[in-house]
Write a structure and sequence with these properties.
157 residues; 5 helices; single chain; alpha/beta; Alpha/beta knot; 5-stranded parallel β-sheet
Length: 157
């Protein structure tokens, strides 16, 4: 199974780019992994919240393929411990999906059309993080999940 992390907008902070690259490289030792950045919408500052979500939904949905298992990173999603997330990842991998797609949306979340395509929603914390920081936090947790599944010493109980 392949994993795709689909994100809106570019990561422009060098320290985040460095951290993301570190974990993306590590994840690649366990599974084919790609992080795909969809460019920010042009003239987004002239759009209201709903218009922006609608425009982003078109771009996000165009990246999905039949058979994808789609998981939205959303503040209202289910929260897992790192160990429980690893177990969930293992079950999802065994389900037969060709590609597991995690999606980090724009600043206003997702339009209803994107929610309708999702198989699950995941929240990293009850706290709010910038969309750029979520990328780093998520790829670290994904790497951690694989080390847990392989019994490697990265994660400590």
């Amino acid at each position: 199974m392949k994993i795709l992390l689909l994100v809106i907008g570019k990561t422009d902070e060098d320290y985040l780019v460095t951290g993301i690259k570190k974990y993306v490289g590590r994840i690649g030792h366990y599974v084919p992994f790609e992080m795909k950045e969809i460019p920010d919408i042009r003239n987004r500052k002239t759009l209201n919240e709903e218009q922006q979500k609608k425009a982003e939904s078109y771009l996000l949905l165009s990246q999905l393929q039949p058979g994808d298992h789609v998981v939205l990173l959303d503040e209202h999603g289910r929260q897992y411990s790192s160990t429980a997330f690893a177990e969930h990842l293992e079950k999802t991998s065994a389900s037969g999906a060709k590609r597991l797609v995690f999606v980090i949306g724009g600043p206003y979340g997702f339009a209803p059309e994107v929610h309708a395509k999702a198989h699950a929603e995941l929240s990293l914390s009850p706290m709010t993080f910038s969309h750029q920081m979520v990328r780093l936090i998520f790829v670290e947790q994904l790497y951690r999940a694989f080390t847990i599944l392989k019994g490697e010493p990265y994660h400590h109980q």
